[in-house]
Amino acid sequence: MRAVYITEFGGPEGLEVHQIPEPSVAPGKIKVRVSHVGVNRADILQRRGLYPGPEGYDPHRPGLEFAGVVAECGEGVSRFKAGDRVFGITSGEAQAEFVVVDQRLAAGVPKGISLEAAAAVPEAYVTAHDALVTQAGLSKGESVLIHAAASGVGIAASQIAKARGAKVIATSRTEEKLNELGTIFDHAIITEGGPVFAERIMELTEGRGVDVVLDLVGGAYFPENLKSLAVKGRMILVGLTAGRKAEFDLGLALAKRLTIKGTVLRSRSVEEKGDAVAAFARDVVPGLGREFTPVIDMVFPVASVREAHERVESNKNIGKVILSF
Q1: pLDDT digits (tens, 9 = 90+) for 123-172
Q2: Would strands 320-324 and 29-39 be described as parallel, antiparallel, or unpaired?
């Protein structure tokens, strides 16, 4: 089978498509003939040698999500049968013509949703739903600040928050991106000149602050996040594209009685990830094509995987970049 392979850690030139043996199905798992996969920033980091998969996954083989058709079911599989259209998550090796995953990490693709569109869903919407609903407990009438709102996770989070009756304030470094997606936000803030947004947040919330911050950026955004939160506010840290370190005003966190959580999906146990996928299947999948519409930036054939990585690294994409097999 064809599979994306990192021949040398570093730039996109280290990516190639290799012929490797097909994986064998195992008890409790399904073998999926992959149609399309999403390209995520985690794949970029893995290619650079900075984010290898957990033990048992080949560090040279990226891919965290997939959409395709069940080719074979292992012993004990009860949720799917051969021929079912599925999408889901894994800890690596998804960018290949076949992937084997635990049945708990997949969900059925609804009728009317193409496999191309489905490939833009799992990583973004499972991550966003877990962060906003399971971790932050976002509820109707609350407000949420979402950074990097034109990213796959940012778009998913904005749609999920709106569906839950929350007020959405979005940030992006690029005005064009927010204008393109403007209808899914209540307010938008441009951070092109740097992460200075707390004063504007207070204006938009009449001095109260937001109930939840979903931070996909990290770094220098952290101090402004603290200022932007309301009393008893919750901050969920998901991404660190702006850096791993930041100043922390402990007094502000104490005075506001803030809750700060960090979360990552990839390194969780199968049981924990299965719970996240189950919650996604319950709350998000039935609304795909209505409340929840994935935004696809560009689709590349797998032979053009280098160009796909370059597109993501350019920060010009709005929504997900997809590889097609």
Answers
A1: 999 999 999 999 999 999 999 999 999 889 999 999 999 999 999 999 98
A2: antiparallel
- Encoding tokens for residue 187? 């307010």
Beta bridge partners of 177: none
Cβ neighbours around 112 below 10 Å, total: 8
Task: Give the model's confidence band at 242: pLDDT under 50 very low, under 70 low, under 90 confident, else very high.
Answer: low
Are 150 and 179 within 8 A, CB to CB? no
Indicate the residue type of 295.
Answer: V
Indicate if the alpha-carbon torsion angle 115, 104, 155, 148 is positive or negative: negative
| Token output for 145 | 């600040």
Give the other-Cβ count within 10 Å of 223's Cβ.
16
Q: Which residues contact 170 (CB under 8 A, 6 or more apart)?
A: 145, 146, 149, 154, 158, 178, 181, 184, 185, 187, 188, 189
Mapped to the 3 state alphabet, what secondary structure does the chain carry?
CEEEEECCCCCHHHEEEEECCCCCCCCCEEEEEEEEEEECHHHHHHHCCCCCCCCCCCCCCCCCEEEEEEEEECCCCCCCCCCCEEEEECCCCCCECEEEEEHHHEEECCCCCCHHHHCCCHHHHHHHHHHHHHHCCCCCCCEEEECCCCCHHHHHHHHHHHHCCCEEEEEECCHHHHHHCHHHCCEEEECCCCCCCHHHHHHHCCCCCEEEEEECCCCCHHHHHHHHEEEEEEEEECCCCCCCCCCCCHHHHHHHCCEEEECCCCCCCHHHHHHHHHHHHHHCHHHECCCECCCEEEEEEHHHHHHHHHHHHCCCCCCEEEEEC
User: Is the four-CA dihedral 262, 265, 268, 269 of positive or negative sign?
Assistant: positive
